[in-house]
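In this notebook, the sequence line spells out the residues, with the fold written below as integer tokens. This is how one looks.
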Amino acid sequence: MNMLAPLRRVAAAAAALLLAAPLSMAWSMSPKVPTKAPPKAPPPAPRCSFTAQPDAQGQVVLHFTLRNDGASELRLLRWGSPFEGGWFGRFVRVHAGSNELPFQGAMRKRGEPAASDYLLLPAGQQLESTLTLNEAFVLPAAGSLKIGAAWRWHDVMTEDSPPRPRSTHQGLDQDCGEATLTR
């Protein structure tokens, strides 16, 4: 009689139990899935309007007004908006007749933002900015101009203090409407 046969059967049964134990434990344990807080809804976009008027020298002056009608103050990353203090991105489109005029302003390459790159807009308050359109577009001497203003706030915060890393930015599209100017 072969004396190893019973030992082989015991070894096979032990191996089967060892393999089955983790499976039965997995079925009996409820999985631990980390729960995340649902993402916060973005704050409402500030209300924006602008006007376009010629000045005495024939320049076209754009005047932007941004109003926060929300209940919380907003911190807006001002890059590429008229509130950056110059033409560092294309935030308006200009048509002379059926032709769109090319943007001639500067385009900036950006790293991580600094706290000073954010614009503070308290609840119930408004901010204004004035720029000369001729600094970023070659305008015809006369005729009708159709100007549309829209941009993306690359980061909008209602809590915490800026800045935050680009990888965690929460952007918001801003529409500022259109204006027609005949000169």
User: Anything to note?
Assistant: The radius of gyration is 31 Å.
